[in-house]
Write a structure and sequence with these properties.
Layout: H1 2-41, H2 45-58, H3 62-78, H4 82-95, H5 103-106, H6 111-117, H7 120-132, H8 136-149, H9 153-169, H10 173-186, H11 194-197, H12 202-209
Helix pairs in contact: 1-2, 2-3, 3-4, 7-8, 7-9, 8-9, 9-10, 10-12
Length: about 210
């Protein structure tokens, strides 16, 4: 009995140490982030980017992560790196899905529209347009981003369906099946359009999953 008590105490101490370590890392990350924000406000974007990236590697609370990624996005946008700007905005929204820009930030002519386009509905619509244009990599990013932010059931099923198409087209059959399963879990009555159902790759895969509903 005494051994069990000692073991339990040791486990509690280890858990406490892990919690303290996490707090220390998050605090170090926060301090580094604050320094990065100071550099950003001073117009020293190169140093700011290094500090914010270092803060993220150290580990931070989700709210701090969102702030760091948001400012990294601002700097990418200001430098004309739209793809990287979008990526960091997506990461900020994954950390804090309810993230909103300040009025003076959202009114910026470059990054304001980009941030707004990443709301779930806009990201979903953009993802579908990119899919139709054959821009599958960017389409997948926007569709996944829309799912992360939250979509109504019908759009969720449609997003998973198109992600399945993209995976199938790239010979990623396991991922294709997984996305079809997710689509059918959201909408068990889901059917492919005639042109979609006749596709030689994903048509049979989708049909093979229907009995499992």
């Amino acid at each position: 009995m005494r051994r069990l008590t000692i073991a339990a105490a040791l486990l509690a101490m280890l858990a406490g140490c892990a919690a303290v370590d996490g707090l220390v890392q998050n605090t170090r990350g926060h301090i580094t982030m604050v320094e990065g924000l100071r550099q950003y406000d001073a117009g020293n974007h190169e140093a700011a980017a290094k500090s914010l990236s270092a803060a993220l590697k150290l580990g931070m609370w989700e709210s701090d992560q969102a702030i760091a990624y948001k400012h990294l996005a601002f700097m990418h946008c200001a430098a004309g790196r739209e793809r990287e700007c979008r990526e960091d905005f997506r990461k900020a929204l994954v950390a804090v899905p309810t993230l909103r820009l300040e009025p003076e930030e959202v009114g910026h002519p470059v990054w304001g529209p980009i941030f707004l386009s990443l709301s779930s509905g806009s990201a979903f619509s953009i993802g579908l347009k990119q899919y139709e244009a054959g821009e599958y990599t960017e389409s997948a990013k926007n569709l996944q981003g829309a799912l992360t932010l939250g979509l109504p059931d019908k759009q969720r099923a449609d997003a998973h369906k198109h992600l399945a198409f993209i995976h199938c087209s790239s010979n990623r059959e396991r991922q294709c099946r997984d996305e079809f399963r997710k689509a059918l879990a959201v909408d068990p009555a889901l059917e492919l359009e005639p042109a979609e159902a006749g596709h030689p790759v994903w048509g049979p895969i989708f049909q093979s999953l229907k009995p499992a509903r």
